[in-house]
C-alpha cells in the first residue's frame, strides 16, 4: 500500500532537518546525531518506578534501567535490547519505548546498555545481551520477578540480539526464556533481498546505513556467517521460545525478518508475524506521531501478557 499519511509526514519532517547521511559520519558523530534527534521525542509515559543500576557482564559492569509498572510482586519481566545497528542508541534513546512496553505488558522491563561497536566488535554486544538475560533469571527473586516468566525483546539490532540470546540460551543450557519479541530484527548479513532493493533508499534506514553498521560491528566479513551474528543462518531453530515478529512494509530489513519468522514456524516454534503496512524502519518508537506505532506496542503488550499467562490490559 501507499505510505501511511502520518509516516509520510514524519519522513518530510526528518528530511527538512537536512542531516548528513549516517553512513558519511564517524561513529561518534552518528551517536550525537541519533541522541539529538531522539531528544526531540516527548517524555514517555509515566510508570510506577524507574531506576538505574549495573549488573555484572563478561567485560565489566553493564548499565541497565528498570521500568516497574506497578508495586506488584512477583512480576514477569522483559529484557529489552535497544536498536541502533550495534553502533548507536542507548538506554536514554529508548526510554519512551520501554515505558510504553512496561505499561502495555504489565511487566518489569530491563533495558540493557550493551557494549557498542566499533570499540567493541562482535560478539561483544551478543555476549552482554546474553549475560543480562541470564542475570535477570538468576536474580529474579531479589528483583521481584517470576523467573519462569522472563522474555527477551528488542528492535532492529536489538531484535537481532534478542533472537541470538534465545539461540545462546538453548545451546548453553539456559536461562529458560518464555518469549521473544523481535521488532524488525536484523537476521542476516546480506543486502540482496527484494526489500533491500525496493526500500534501500528514502525510508529513514538505507542500504548504505546497514553496510556501515555491519562494517563497524563485524571484526571481518566472514564473521557475518556466524549464527550469533546472522540468526537466520542457524542450522536448527527448534526448541526456541514462542515469538512475535513485527516488520514494516517500507523497511530494507522486512524480508529477512519475515524469513526468520517462517524459519521459526517451520521449526515448530509458535510464531506470529505482523507486517505493519505503510510504515518504515524505526516506526515502533514513534508512538507520539504514528497510530501504527501505538498499535504495534499494544500488540506487543498483548502478546507478552499472553505468554506470561496474564489478562488483557484495560484501555
Explain the overall architecture:
The protein has 315 residues and is α/β, with parallel strands linked by helices. It has helices at 5-16, 27-38, 95-105, 124-138, 140-143, 157-171, 194-199, 207-217, 254-266, 291-308; strands at 49-57, 60-68, 75-81, 108-112, 145-155, 180-183, 243-250, 271-280. It has one domain (5-308): 3-Layer(aba) Sandwich (Rossmann fold), CATH 3.40.50.1820. It is built from ten helices and eight strands. It has an eight-stranded mixed beta sheet, sandwiched between helices. Helix 3 crosses helix 10. The radius of gyration is 18 Å and the shape is globular. The protein starts with a helix and ends in a 7-residue tail after the last helix. The model has no long low-confidence stretch (mean pLDDT 96).
